[in-house]
């Protein structure tokens, strides 16, 4: 009985299986995160050679009844290579950090078409020089939103008081976002002060429908670092994962020199 699945997919990670075969972790357009085995992928005459590339989009055909959720690949054809992710190391770091989060946080074989759209928007935005950090944090916020974990920034996450820009608020990952100073004082949950400029920046990033909307928004390295820290604490708490790929990406994206 045939159980062939045809989908568009981006390769997130490769893993060894044998001397000539390898696993590919994909984010597919319609079937979410899937793992397929490509037999003979590394043989010199394999018809898969050149058809799979990290962070490139491929046309993928696989058998959807794999043992232990590892499916056999039938066909694969490269649709959209993204050469800028080989040439720009910051863009590559941002793509790797986002892919690491998807590999760890998404359950396998569960449709996430909106996450696919956001991830491919990130990969394409990374073609623009200097966009890496901006686009990376946009993707993190978009992912949280799609997972129903959007940080609350307009109202106190505890008492729902409207937080006007002049009201002192603190950021508390465990309570889901900003809390007013009264709620922060009443609770033992850890919280950190947020400078108003960083808070405004988070709001702009959260509302942006695409990373390209943020291309013209200016910010300082210090503001970016502060936003990265707040988002890191929020992601760690809500995804309950050690995001090693994010830590590496943050080190690389924090470099002050442009390159
Ligand atoms: Zn409150």
Short description:
The chain has helices at residues 84-87, 89-105, 113-125, 132-146, 181-186, 196-207, 221-239, 244-253; strands at 4-16, 22-28, 32-38, 57-67, 70-80, 169-172, 177-180, 192-193. It is of the alpha+beta class and 259 residues long. Strands 1-2-3-5-4 form a 5-stranded mixed barrel. A 3-stranded antiparallel β-sheet has the order 7-6-8.
User: What does the largest sheet look like?
Assistant: 5 strands, mixed, barrel
Q: How many structural domains in the coordinates?
A: 2
Task: Please tell me the overall pLDDT.
Answer: 92
Helix content: 25-40%
Rounded Rg: 20 Å
Runs with pLDDT <50, length 5+? Answer: none
What structural category characterises the helix and strand content? alpha+beta
Q: Could you please say which CATH topology of the largest domain applies here?
A: de novo design (two linked rop proteins)
The tally of beta strands, per DSSP, is 8
Share in β-strands: 15-25%
Name the CATH class of the largest domain. Answer: Mainly Alpha
How far is it from the N-terminal to the C-terminal residue, by CA? 53 Å
Dominant shape: elongated
